[in-house]
Amino acid sequence: MAYMPHAFQVHVGAAKAGIEMMMRNLALEWGRFGIRANSIVPGPIEGTEGMRRLADPAAARRMLEAIPVGRLGSVDDIGHAAAFLASPLASYITGCMLVVDGGQNLPGSAMFNMGAAQALRAQEQKAPAPEAPGG
Question: What is the pTM of this model?
Answer without folding.
Answer: 0.74
